[in-house]
Design a protein that fits this description.
Strand content: under 5%
Order of helices and strands: HHHHHHHHHHHHH
Length: about 250
Amino acid sequence: MAAHRRATSPAAWHGLSRTAIRLRQDARMSTLVTAVRDALRAVGDPERGRGMQAYLKTTEPCLGVRLPEVRRHARAAAATHPPATPAELERAARQLWREAAAREERYAAIALTGLPIARGALELLPLHEEMITTGAWWDLVDGVQPRVRDLLLAHPAQLRPVLQSWARSPDRWLRRSAVTAQLGAKARTDTALLSEVIEVNAGDPEFFVRKAIGWALRDLATTDPAWVRRFLAGHELSPLSRREAGKHLDR
């Protein structure tokens, strides 16, 4: 007598299909990660890497690959192994970031999040925040800044409360990121938001936050010097912030 066979329901087949697709996507993105790593190691310069490590004051090894070259290799690897969706790209960038054995792998992960397919993709915000809080140093945090700006410009209603929260975070790198988020926004700068994130941090003794305040104001002074002058006249800022803010205004 033939053994009884239980029919697989449509829902189960759908679940199996989704799992198989996810496994194929993960394998493809792992191939992208491997391609990035191999490319960086092939062009590394150990002597330059030691100099980079000393300059950055980091314990993380550096391969000695200049940042423009890191970005070029990341883009080339992604062109050969292209992510099909922002979610696929997010998985590759997150893997590269979390498993990084060298600083340049983190730079490459940030570079991947700048690909056209990821531009303005709100679902990448948790990864950007992870990169800021776990990167926890100026070179990595500032590398994420353009991604945050692009998200703010694309999704102001969603990003505004996020940056307001970051500005009040106990994490100094989130506070710095809230202040610098609009660098390069020029005429599209939300000055009310900029005022708020600076005002809540104006008394912060942290060097990287004070420097960020001056940097944000200096950047806006190139397109709206009158606004920056009014802001400086109406607020008490640290000498460092004020000095940085006034560099373009003194010309």
